[in-house]
Amino acid sequence: MQYRTLVMYMEIGCFVSCLCGWILVCSTLPTEYWTFSEVGSIVLTTSNYYSNLWMDCISDTTGVSDCKYYPSLLALSVFLHVCRALTIVSVILGFWAAVLTFIGMKCTKIGGSELANARVTFAASITYLASGFSGLIVYCWWGNKVRSEFVDPNFRAQKFEIGAAVFIGWGGTCLIIAAASVMAYFSGREVFYKNGKKGKPRSYATARTRTYMIPGSSGRPRTLAPSSRRTPGLTPMPPLFSGRVSLPSQKTRSVRTIQPLSMDSFV
């Protein structure tokens, strides 16, 4: 099996895993059982209290249940505001990460070249990681708050236990983080490896070595390699012309012969 085919199947598996985790996180938003508590008043009648990010509910064994939304938005605690915000951010980031993954996967062939697809897939994996960690912070913080109130002997109010929605959220966020980490490893390796291979030559000496033909020479070509003593900034340039150069012939000067003088020449 080729490496590209292996990466393609890996991307499909990671995308399906992240999508399933995102669906699990979304399913916890309308679920009422983030916290629950059971109070028995008499033998046959038991009241169940449960709540989530948006409402408080109560039900009994007769089948009657009643839910009431939080009356004031500004009267809520900072803890509840932060949990709401991080949960919504997790859902939004997971949606856009799914769109980016669908565009950048090798099997869809929408992103363009192989390097462009790898870059889009790497961005999608980082977005999935941000989505998973945002949701994980919410569920861990919520579970720790419920646990600390339950084990605190000085806490006199109604004590609750961790509901099923928190466990579902833990599973969904862990699935997103695990799959996104694998996808980020493979796509990031492809992106950074190709960029590094394209930008750097194998050898500096090999890249700077050139073979030139010295004008006017009939011998073998000479190879000019870089030297440590060469002045930095000077790069050998190829000749602007080829062939043999005929040097201009020098003009032959007339040579005057000086004859010896005799006495007869003055007569």
Map the helices and strands.
Layout lengths: L2 H25 L7 E6 L5 E6 L3 E6 L4 E5 L8 H27 L9 H38 L9 E2 L1 H36 L4 H5 L1 E3 L9 E3 L43
Helix pairs in contact: 1-2, 1-4, 2-3, 3-4
In short:
The protein has 267 residues and is of the alpha+beta class.
Characterization of the model:
A hairpin with a 4-residue loop joins strand 3 (55-60) and strand 4. Strands 4-3-2-1-5 form a five-stranded antiparallel beta sheet. Strands 6-7 form a two-stranded antiparallel sheet. With 267 residues, it is of the alpha+beta class. The N and C termini lie far apart (115 Å). Mean pLDDT is 77; it is low at 199-209 and 223-231. It is elongated, with a radius of gyration of 41 Å. It has helices at residues 3-27, 78-104, 114-151, 164-199, 204-208, and strands at residues 35-40, 46-51, 55-60, 65-69, 161-162, 210-212, 222-224. Helix content is 49%, strand content 12%.
The biggest beta sheet is recorded as:
5 strands, antiparallel
Note poorly predicted spans. 199-209, 223-231
The gross shape turns out to be elongated
Number of strands: 7
Strand content: 5-15%
Structural class determined from secondary elements:
alpha+beta
Number of helices: 5
Average pLDDT figure: 77
Instruction: Kindly report how far apart the N and C termini lie.
Output: 115 Å
Strand order of the largest sheet: 4-3-2-1-5
The succession of helices and strands, N to C, reads: HEEEEHHEHHEE
Radius of gyration: 41 Å
Helical proportion, percent range: 40-55%
